[in-house]
Structure formats: C-alpha cells, structure tokens
Write a structure and sequence with these properties.
alpha+beta, about 210 residues
C-alpha cells in the first residue's frame, strides 16, 4: 500500500518528482493533500511520521519517507528493474549526472525559483520581468541544460530518467511564463511536458489558489 502526501495545491516541484517516479514505476498508489497554508504538516501525526514535516512524503505499508530524492531512490531499489521500469540510468556515470542535476536544481537558482515560483506553471502566470539576479539564474539554467542535452535530444540520455522531469519543470518556469529560451530547450520541455506521467500531474484538478 503506497500513499503519496503532497501539498494541497499540487504545485511543489518535488511532489511532481515523487508522483512521476511512482507512475513511471507502474505502481498503484493513493494521494493525500496536506494543507501547508493550514499548517497541517505541523500536526503531530504528520510531523512525527514524516520526520521533516515537509512534502512530499511517502507511506509504504507504514514505513514513512520524506524528501523527494530519498523517495525516488527508495522506489528504484524497492521496486527494481526488470520487474519495474528504471527511473535512474543503468550506466553509473549517467546515474551520477542524473543525481547531480537533481541535487543542483534543489539547491541553486534561488532567484529564479522566487520570481517564477512553481505556482505560476499551474495557476496565474508571473506578471513582472525577471530581475538581474533572476536573469542570471535563468542564464545559468539554460547553460547547464544546453551542456547536458545533445542537439535534438528530447531526454537527457538514451533512456528517460527521473531527472528529465526535474529539468523540464525548471525550464517550464521560464517557458510557461513567456521568458525567452532557445528553441532546442523549448523542444525538450515540450516533449517532457507531454509525457503521460508528467501530463497527469500538470493537468490534475486543483483548488483555487491561496498563497501559503
């Protein structure tokens, strides 16, 4: 029995990572919403089970795990290939690059994440142009993405991996808000955003927007 806990608006990029990982593994799971605005993550029953009092969190038969990278790595090892599709590359160096990108996207580009929050991908778009810091972060994102994607590639490696979902969402902060980006990165984003697991998350029914 698998239950994924996500924010009530379903806009967290890291909830997307976990949701896509579960779908790509072909696993049946339930979802439950945690109202961050209502501080439900601080209720003792959730706080104590998740340890970090954050979303996402995964409950697997009473075993709880939070933090999205830990969740998808757990899924990769508990439901391994070939019984279930891979979500991390088989090649060790590609797997290292996948993990590098996932870690980087969670710890860098603060100005871009602040000025183009994930809510703008699913609710009202951003209204203001990027600041100097935001433009610098956008340029860094574009440089890294261009460096790791081969010309004409619609995924990072020969086989899809979970970092594709993370990188596509990061690029979506720019693309869906109308910020300029080179065509090959737009083509990569379009291909990833159309992937069924990602599309299901993007098209999920959401309540009216309320800031946390």
């Amino acid at each position: 029995m698998l239950t994924l806990y996500g924010d009530a608006l379903w806009v967290s990029p890291w909830v997307l990572t976990s949701f896509v990982g579960l779908r790509e593994k072909g696993l049946a799971f339930e979802t439950r919403a945690v109202s961050l605005g209502g501080k439900e993550q601080l209720r003792p029953e959730y706080r104590d089970a998740s340890l970090t009092a954050r979303v996402p969190a995964l409950d697997h038969d009473g075993y709880w795990l939070s933090e999205s990278i830990a969740i998808v790595e757990y899924l990769a090892e508990w439901f391994p290939f070939p019984a279930h599709p891979r979500i991390f590359p088989a090649d060790l160096r590609e797997r290292g690059r996948c993990r590098q990108l996932m870690g980087w996207l969670r710890t860098d580009l603060a100005a871009l994440r602040e000025e183009r929050p994930t809510s703008t991908l699913f609710y009202e778009r951003a209204r203001t142009p990027l600041s100097e810091a935001g433009r610098a972060a956008a340029a860094k994102l574009a440089r890294v993405a261009s460096s790791v994607l081969a010309d004409g590639a619609t995924q990072l490696f020969d086989a899809w991996c979970i970092a594709d979902a993370d990188l596509a969402l990061a690029l979506g902060r720019l693309i869906l808000n109308g910020d300029a980006i080179e065509p090959r990165l737009r083509a990569y984003f379009d291909a990833q955003w159309a992937r069924p697991s990602v599309r299901e998350f993007a098209e999920r029914a959401r309540p009216p927007f309320e800031p946390y």
